[in-house]
Amino acid sequence: MLSLTTCFVAIVISLFLGQWYRFEITKAKLKSIPTVGSSNFIVSYFSFLRFVFDSRRMMAEGYRKYQGSLFKVRVPTLESGWVVFGSGHQIVEDIRRATIDQLSFSEAVSETLGSKYLHGSYYDGPNIPYHFDVVRLSLTRSFPARFADLRDELQVSVTDSFPQSEDWFEVPLFNSLAAIVLRSSHRLFVGLPTCRNERYLKILNDVVPRRAMAGNLVQLVPAALKPIVGKMINPFSRPLKELDELIGPMIRERLKQEETLGPTWQDRPTLTNAMFDLAEHLHYLTPLREEAEEMVGSYGWTKEAMNRMRKLDSFLKESSRLRGIGSVSMSRKVMKDFTLSDGTVLPAGCLVSIVAGGVHYDPELYDNPDKFDGFRFLNLRETEEGGEMKYQMVSLDHKYLLFGHGRSACPGRFFAVNEIKAIFAHIILNYDIKFPDGVSSHPDGRWFTTMYTPDPSAPLSLRKRQ
To answer: How far is CA 152 from CA 76, 180, 346, 433, in A?
Structure first.
């Protein structure tokens, strides 16, 4: 009879050999695409560690060496073991035009974020994109009529988060804005009084970082062990039961009325980065305030006023160009062998993404790309033919990939941008801001693989507007 140790060793060896076999098969199919890092089965694990902790520089290296083309990186924790990264207008177009049954955004997100392993019985499958229609249609269409509700909630939540003091005070900006965004969004999603219910807000505040941490952990686990680990660290079971007690009856009643509930858009990194950029470049404060005062004075706190804040739109877009929420965009899983315009075949099972960070810092696409120019996109809107529509923050373009591109572009971008504008405008109209003593530039954020988030502990100083 075999001992437990022998069985364990046999299982480990089997997993190792299986992974090695899949590695070699996929590598052979991708042999025409150069590698950043190592292509050796053993040594590539060290390249993977670099990808986990230094992917931003890894993506920059690949973009610099293979601009307008493709490169691949070994990611052994994915089913295929490889991710292909691309850049250039034609490759962006190839991915944008692909059908869902060829290149799937939902499948890519499911695999990289571990949705099918972490969501348990609440996982409906990656190809049921009902969230897209809820946000793109129901939320976007109803938003203008409910702008007064958003305005009311952001006023109250900002007052609760920022003291009405004429002396300078410091706040942890990311976490403070997170509370404001959460309450303002959920004023529309669940309404009063639930959006101010402390227990409800605590559940949501707790589950978001837990889900992020669980997703990061699943990324580091071999594919064969993901189902087991996913069940062990499932972050949703208890919170969803608690949420069902709080909003379950309301949701069931709405479903009877054929209404539905939209998901929260996490726009706090964009808002946080923009506030830090304004603190670093305070000469933009006066023109942004003047524009906000003029538009609110003429149109009130409405979606129309937000649409007419062209300087603010440009400022937010520039801030997002420089930092965004990660170094890649337009991630897709290849569902069946897919041939690019140049004849390169991407094999079924691998992931493909566009190096958004490289695109956003490309000197061939942007003048002085390393320099913050808050009115860069305003000037392009005013001087370039067709620029009025092309350079809005919500517009999709191969040179600006914060929201992706194509069929799977972020459907909530219209709501998100208007909410960010409303919160940003309210803050600058009611508060002075600056960096705390000893801080003179935008605080460094945190990177994990290709994902970026602002430092949640980084402070900002505010006082009641003088």
So the answer is: 49, 12, 50, 22
Give the DSSP H or E segment for 377.
helix 376-383
**Helices vs. strands in the chain: H and E counts, helices first:** 20, 12
Instruction: Give the C-alpha separation, 107 to 88, whole Å.
Output: 23
Query: For residue 449, is it left (φ>0), alpha (ψ between -120 and 50) or beta?
Result: left
Q: Please give the pLDDT value at position 400.
A: 96
What is the C-alpha to C-alpha distance for residues 278 and 290, in angstroms, rounded to an integer?
A: 15
Buried b (16+ CB within 10 A) or exposed e, 156-188: bbbeebbeeeeeeeeeebbebbbbbbbbbbbbb
- Encoding tokens for residue 429? 């109209």
Q: What does 30-73 look like in DSSP terms, one character per residue?
A: TTTS-BSS--STTTHHHHHHHHHHHHHHHHHHHHHHSTTSEEEE
* DSSP H stretches of helix in 130-267: 130-133, 140-142, 147-161, 173-189, 198-219, 226-232, 237-256
Cβ pair 397, 246 in contact under 8 A = no
Dihedral-angle region of residue 399 (phi above 0 means left; psi in -120 to 50 means alpha; beta otherwise): alpha
Helix boundaries (H) for 281-352: 285-299, 303-307, 310-322
Q: Is the pLDDT of residue 133 over 80?
A: no
Residues 243-298 have pLDDT tens digits of: 888 888 877 776 555 444 343 444 678 899 999 999 999 999 999 999 999 999 99
Among residues 84, 36, 104, 100, the alpha carbon closest in space to that of 344 is found at 84
Q: Is the dihedral of CA 201, 306, 453, 448 positive or negative?
A: positive
Q: Rounded to an integer, what distance in angstroms lies between the CA atom of residue 313 and that of residue 395? A: 11
Distance CA 42, CA 47 (A): 10
pTM of the model: 0.88
Tokens 């931003």 correspond to 56
Q: Categorise residue 368: left if φ over 0, alpha if ψ from -120 to 50, beta otherwise.
A: left
Strand-pair partners of 338: 346
Q: How many CA atoms lie within 13 A of 370 on its CB side?
A: 0
Rounded to an integer, the average pLDDT of 64-84 is: 90
Cα angle 261, 264, 265 (rounded to 5 degrees) comes to 135
- Beta-bridge partner residues of 459: 172
Give the pLDDT confidence of 6-54 residue by residue, as tens digits.
Answer: 776 777 777 777 778 878 888 889 999 999 998 888 888 888 889 988 9
